[in-house]
Write a structure and sequence with these properties.
The chain has 14 helices and 21 strands. The strands form 6 sheets. A 6-stranded parallel β-sheet has the order 2-1-3-4-5-6, sandwiched between helices. The protein has a 5-stranded mixed beta barrel with strand order 17-18-19-21-20. A 3-stranded parallel β-sheet has the order 7-10-13, sandwiched between helices. Strand 17 and strand 18 form a beta hairpin. The chain is globular, with a radius of gyration of 22 Å. The structure holds S-adenosylmethionine (SAM), iron/sulfur cluster and FE3-S4 cluster.
Length: 439
């Protein structure tokens, strides 16, 4: 190693799990003697923590890589590594597409990152480490957290489902959970350190289990909510087929479990849901929504939607629109179908909805959701909500931005309040994405 500590910078793409992983990677590198650089230009080692879920997510990493290719030519000794889901998915073939990449490391192999960087700095190129490790949860590594108020805690990793369109079971491997005692201890530590909110993460968080204690995710949520009564507890992502009445009851009963459930539906058509191998019908999903709304009054429900999946007809697309109206989502993540080589759908179903049709259907979905969000937010005007202030508003230092327990963004005149405080805010205005108010 140089006498001066080498510096690193991480670009993070993809989901919250990747953001949490970048905090773990940062901890591993700092422990190994590396120093975090303020920006990419100052770094000796540039890492891209990548996402493979849709083709355009991979393209985003590709754009950063093309610009790094130029920098690498100009700066001798610059090390470029790919982490996360793209290397696990595309494997060594990546070196063919990007010959200037020095190494690739998959999501289960970060503990060995410093060794691989060291080898590359000593002249060995095109190193790869992409072995699945079904036990790896990064237990015992204290992440270098980017946010001091609201943070993430992965409680399970991997996914055992087989959704026909999805690469995550390939990129993340089999499910494994962090033990109950460890999760509870970590959340208590976060509370003692002054954090005000934690989001428990899992690709499929309802599948969390502690078999030694015969506990399921409802048991975990209850335990965590008692262990950190001063903190807001969130969790994501829930799968509709696994969300149980006992879990929803716990959310309704415990005041610090946020009244927000992200419940991806993907499509409103039972035929599409069957082809997608989601394990439930439209009706079963709507029954779950009714159960949730009954047990958790005032709950906010959000979702993910895919437009133009294989063989989707116009009629089936309209079923998605009607389901959106029936549920009344707060917000949604909306995508058009992107065929992913290796998935069940790519092998067995025709990607036969023309791209312009996929895009037009997606636009209809977005327009409907925007209109519904705006109406729902307008209805909040005149109410008073509790907001956890997170940061100064990007537009004005005299305002704070925060979120309600239902995960609605609120911007308000700050007065004497500071980020980290809970503030009662009267809502005076709204767009489709933000509430505005006064203390
Ligand atoms: N585990 C979560 C679940 O079951 O809902 C979501 C995981 S995935 C990372 C996030 C979202 O990406 C999915 O809910 C789906 O809407 C979308 N997605 C996944 N694969 C896709 C594909 N091939 N094309 C378009 N969207 C996709
Ligand atoms: Fe992908 Fe389905 Fe697993 Fe979610 S539940 S990560 S969509 S396979
Ligand atoms: Fe993407 Fe991997 Fe997350 S594929 S969505 S970064 S689990």
């Amino acid at each position: 190693m140089n006498s001066v500590s080498p510096t690193f910078f991480i670009h993070t793409f993809g989901c919250q799990m990747n953001m949490a992983d970048s905090e773990i990677v940062t901890a591993i590198l700092v422990e190994g003697g590396f120093v975090q650089a303020e920006d990419e230009g100052a770094a000796d080692v540039v890492l891209l923590n990548t996402c493979a879920v849709r083709a355009n997510a991979v393209d985003r990493a590709g754009n950063v890589l093309s610009h790094l290719k130029g920098r690498k030519r100009r700066r001798k000794g610059l090390v470029v590594g790919l982490l996360g889901c793209v290397p696990q998915y595309e494997r060594e073939q990546l070196f063919g597409d990007f010959p200037f990449v020095d190494f690739i490391v998959g999501p289960d192999n970060y503990r060995d990152l410093c060794g691989i960087v060291q080898k590359v700095r000593e002249g060995e190129r095109q190193q790869s480490l992409i072995k699945y490790d079904q036990r790896e949860t990064y237990a015992g590594i204290e992440p270098v957290r980017a946010n001091r108020i609201s943070t993430f805690l992965p409680v399970m990793r991997g996914c055992n489902n087989h959704c026909a369109f999805c690469v995550v079971p390939v990129t993340r491997g089999r499910e494994r959970s962090v033990a109950f005692g460890r999760v509870v201890a970590e959340v208590s530590t976060l509370q003692a350190a002054g954090y005000r909110e934690v989001t428990l993460l899992g690709q499929n968080v309802n599948s969390w289990r502690d078999t030694d204690r015969s506990l399921d995710f409802a048991g975990l949520l209850e335990g965590v909510s008692h262990a950190a009564p001063e903190m807001r507890i969130r969790f994501t992502t829930s799968h509709p087929k696994d969300i149980s009445e006992s879990l929803v009851r716990v959310i309704g009963e415990r005041p610090n479990l946020c009244n927000h459930i992200h419940l991806p539906v993907q499509s409103g058509s039972s035929r599409m849901l069957d082809l997608m191998k989601r394990g439930h019908t439209r009706e079963e999903y709507l029954d779950k929504i009714a159960m949730i709304r009954k047990l958790v009054p005032g709950v906010a429900i959000t979702t993910d939607l895919i437009a133009g999946f294989c063989t989707e007809t116009d009629e089936e697309h309209r079923e998605t629109l009607s389901l959106m109206e029936a549920v009344g989502y707060d917000t949604a993540f909306m995508f058009y179908y992107s065929v992913r080589p290796g998935t069940w759908a790519s092998r067995n179903l025709p990607d036969d909805v023309p791209e312009p049709v996929k895009k037009a259907r997606l636009q209809e979905i977005i327009d409907l959701q925007t209109a519904m969000s705006r109406e729902l937010y307008q209805r909040q005007i005149g109410t008073t909500v509790e907001v956890l202030a997170e940061a100064e508003s990007k537009r004005s230092p005299s305002k704070l931005m925060g979120r309600t327990a239902t995960n609605r963004a609120v911007v308000f005149d700050r007065g004497n309040f500071m980020p980290g405080e809970l503030v009662q805010v009267r809502i005076t205005g709204a767009t489709s994405a933000t509430l505005k108010g006064v203390v």
